[in-house]
Amino acid sequence: MAGEILHNKKHNIESAVDHNGVSGATLDNIIAFDAGGLPKDSGKTSSEIGLNTTHRGEANPHSASAASGANSDITALSGLTGNISDGTDSVTVSSIAGATKGSVTLEVDGSGAAITTGKKAWARMPFDATITGYELTADVSGSVVVDIWKDTFANFPPTVADTITAAAKPTLASAQKVSDATLSGWTTSIGAGDYLKFNIDSATTVTKIMLTLQLDKTGA
To answer: Are residues 170 and 89 both part of a single domain?
Structure first.
């Protein structure tokens, strides 16, 4: 039959006859195919053709959502509900379906240099929630003050006039970590569709920070 490659040996399924592998094959080499569609030794190992089956998220993480650039995180894929990246700065909103808890995480990375002040990344809230506390950490002991602005889509983008932190902004003062569950003076209620934008008011020494807002979900 034209175009059909026939196997010219018959044998029982349990027989070892004609099951001797690829002639001349080298252990651990990649299989290739000749012009007739039959297997042959490619002469190359997986390392020689750049095949890598090991994923190391900390070295080259990948995005599970619409973050810009190649370096964004695939952490908690089942719970990821939103992520936006602005260069080396990113903010992620996450919650597991059916859970009553969630979080908003800001990461600012100065790529080895002290982080800069000014407006950073932002996120859209996909559910109603109440902020119950925060944790702020840095790569080294130093100082940083972060402000958080909230507004609706109609009034986007949020500005300093929309701050929710009053006089109790997340602050590191010659320290590497701080947490707060009091949130004195904060506007803690967030509505689905609200936008949160983060601003670095000041920073000294620290080259990378992570601010996590802890949430109680009050909606779907």
So the answer is: yes
CA quadruple 3, 9, 13, 18: dihedral, nearest 10? -100
In a domain, 176, yes or no: yes
Query: pTM value?
Result: 0.62
Q: Which residues contact 111 (CB under 8 A, 6 or more apart)?
A: 88, 207
Answer yes or no: do 104 and 134 share one domain.
yes
Three-state helix/strand/coil letters over 142-158: EEEEEEEEEECCCCCCC
Contact (Cβ atoms closer than 8 angstroms) between residue 176 and residue 137: yes
Which residue range is the domain that position 36 belongs to? 10-55
Does residue 118 share a domain with residue 207? Answer: yes
Burial 54-67 (b: 16+ CB within 10 A, else e): eeeeeeebebbbeb
Residues 28-73 have pLDDT tens digits of: 666 666 666 667 776 665 444 443 333 333 333 333 333 333 333 3
- Do 40 and 125 have their domain in common? no
Tokens in use for 53? 């089956």
The Cα–Cα gap between 33 and 15 comes to 24
In a domain, 198, yes or no: yes
Q: Is 140 helix (H, G, I), strand (E, B) or coil?
A: strand
